Amino acid sequence: MKKKVVIFSQIFPEFEEKLKQQFDVVKIDPKLSDQLGDVNQQIRNAVVDVHGMIGAGRVLGQAQLETAQHLEIISSVSVGYDNYDLAYLKERGITLAHTPHVLTETTADTAFGLLMSAARRIAELDQWTRQGQWQRTVAPAQFGMDIHNKTLGIIGLGHIGAAIARRAYYGFNMNIVYHGRREKIEVADAFKAQFLSLQELLTQSDFVVVAVDLNAQTRHLISTQEFALMQSHAVLVNISRGAVIDEHALYQALKQKQIFAAGLDVFEKEPLTESPLFELDNIVVTPHIGSATQATRYAMNKLAYENLVLKLNGAQPKYFVQ
Ligand code: NDP
């Protein structure tokens, strides 16, 4: 008898087809709803007799999975896994696979795009130009911040953090400082990056990029006290997870011009259709597009597919969290 697989978000048709050739495939599309109970119930009903799940962007833990009798693996089409209840999956012996590496460079590109756009006010001045406000040569009211030769502070010198550092060091001659749980000499040496405490990094950096994963220690890592340490010309970029930054504190810091600007790809609540942040000029926002290029999303889908198939055929996935 074929094993059963649930697809819980959109995946590329090519991999859906391949899955259908090997497994009994069920697609669920739990609609975004404020009534979390409904969404959870849809998932609970769908997983009763499944062996594998593939998708992204869903909270999955006991409330959604306790009906699952045979679940062997959740193959996440993402590198981040903060939406999965690791302790529960471990207790149940359910493997969690993910897709690191293939999205590193694309996400670093996104971070740099946000950094440049926020510093040079590209999105804001695009609107200004379209509105017909370019009636004479631009004045100090439209000036931005230089990027080259400045100090970039990277919080979380992991794969994406290092790819951002490489762009900054070789492309923009930036001075790199970083903070993490431990010094990473083998990575940092290539960019002459200096290891600092979080407080030192915030005080010294012209640009701060957040590239940590979301975990119990990084939730609201940047809040009121941290904004108070930053320079008034500093630009903050977040491509990690929204909850790493206290959004209310960020709003206050931007509104009071405690920092110059922010570039954000991720938010505490997603999708985000309204926010006080949207009222501010000194912010650039994107809808969680860190890895969203055709080529990279294809590579992520392929890797997640491979992880799933390996596990369901009795082998180890290429990349798994636990
Ligand atoms: P990595 O695991 O390679 O990097 C995460 C880094 O964060 C590591 O260096 C880790 O340190 C550090 N870190 C973790 N906890 C702390 C802490 N408490 N204090 C300081 N540093 C900490 O992951 P990636 O670089 O591949 O991805 C990073 C995150 O980016 C993902 O987890 C995901 O949430 C997000 N992401 C967002 C995307 C988007 O679309 N916007 C796309 C892809 C990823 P250590 O080395 O010691 O473990």
From TrEMBL:
UniProt keyword list? NAD, Oxidoreductase, Pyruvate
Q: What is this protein called?
A: Bifunctional glyoxylate/hydroxypyruvate reductase B
Q: Which Pfam family is an annotated match for this chain, by its short name?
A: 2-Hacid_dh_C
What CDD domains has UniProt attached to this entry?
Answer: GDH
All residue ranges annotated as the D-isomer specific 2-hydroxyacid dehydrogenase catalytic domain in the record: 5-321
Family (UniProt): Belongs to the D-isomer specific 2-hydroxyacid dehydrogenase family.
Write down the PANTHER family for this protein, in alphabetical order: 2-HYDROXYACID DEHYDROGENASE-RELATED (PTHR10996), GLYOXYLATE_HYDROXYPYRUVATE REDUCTASE B (PTHR10996:SF283)
Molecular-function annotations in GO: glyoxylate reductase (NADPH) activity; hydroxypyruvate reductase [NAD(P)H] activity; NAD binding
A single GO cellular-component term from the record reads:
cytosol
Q: Which Gene3D superfamilies would you find in this protein's record?
A: NAD(P)-binding Rossmann-like Domain
